[in-house]
Design a protein that fits this description.
Blueprint: H1 11-18, H2 37-51, H3 58-65, H4 69-72, H5 79-92, H6 104-121, H7 137-148, H8 157-188, H9 192-206, H10 213-226, H11 232-254
Length: 255
């Protein structure tokens, strides 16, 4: 299972770092002239993308930058703050199209796909706790853009926020399930098909279709359709359409 990561960064210090002017006030004197907070965050994101958060260390970042680990602490107070800065950076860099003239379903679908693409580019983001997200320009830009997809639909402000949360929680759940499936395949060194083939003889001995008729019928149909225990593409497409249908029903009640 994908491990959840989070930090306990100092609120005052992290807000100062998040809202600094890019390229200003973040250079420090030291053995690596010209090193900046942005450079530290960029390397940290690259390392997390390639190796995951489990392998991300201040020592490894320092090695990539050609400085000592202690030097990094003149730019970033600690790993908790660094994680917040990394998350806000990838939020800020998310590609966003102009959806102002698109139909509402197209706008909401675009938000879902933008977030799914974020998890594809940066899988570690799905393992981050966002119970208290970094309140930086990246998050605010993301929030403003996503709320616009629900604007003008007849929802009040609380419903707009709740609809966005529902959509993003769904996308996040698919991303986490996908990570778990990938981790299981790596750990067992078997694909889903290989795993089922290996366990089918034992399952046949202990499983009684007459006792569990629905499980036998539905499980067989789903397995044949997906050729695996879990199909993230089907889960995403099916779930997204149900959310859109639910929003359409909500909108019809508010008009």
């Amino acid at each position: 299972m994908a491990k959840e990561h989070g930090g306990t960064s100092d609120p005052a210090r992290i807000l100062e770092l998040l809202w600094r002017e890019p390229g200003h006030g973040d250079a420090r004197r030291g053995p690596k002239q010209g090193l900046t907070v942005d450079a530290v965050v960029r390397v940290a994101v690259e390392l997390a993308d390639s190796d995951g958060l489990e392998a991300l260390t201040m020592r490894g970042i320092a090695r990539q930058l050609g400085v000592t680990p202690m030097t990094l602490y003149t730019y970033v107070p600690g790993k908790a703050e660094l994680l917040d800065l990394m998350l806000d950076r990838v939020y800020l860099e998310m590609p966003r199209g102009d959806l102002s003239t698109a139909p509402w379903r197209t706008r909401v679908e675009a938000v879902a796909h933008e977030n799914r693409d974020l998890y594809d580019r940066h899988p570690w983001v799905a393992t981050m706790s966002t119970a208290r997200p970094p309140l930086g320009p990246g998050l605010m830009t993301k929030y403003e853009h996503e709320l616009a997809a629900f604007d003008g639909l007849g929802l009040d402000d609380v419903e707009m926020d709740a609809a966005r949360t529902l959509l993003l929680d769904f996308v996040h759940s698919v991303a986490r399930a996908t990570l778990d499936t990938q981790a299981a395949a790596r750990d067992s060194v078997m694909s889903d098909q290989q795993w089922w083939a290996a366990n089918e003889p034992l399952l046949t001995k202990v499983f009684d279709p007459a006792r569990f008729p629905l499980a036998a019928r539905v499980g067989s149909a789903a397995g044949a359709a997906h050729q695996s225990m879990y199909n993230p593409e089907h889960a995403f497409a099916f779930g997204l359409q149900r959310i859109l249908d639910g929003l359409a029903h909500l909108m019809s009640r508010t008009r």
